[in-house]
Amino acid sequence: MSTNEPESENSGDRSAADAESPGLGDLAEAFFKSLGITEDRYQAVKVTLHLDPKCNCADRKRWLNEVGAQLGVSSVVVKMAQWMDRRKGGRSR
Question: Hey, which of 14, 55, 64, 84 has its CA 20 to 30 A from 74?
Answer without folding.
Answer: 55
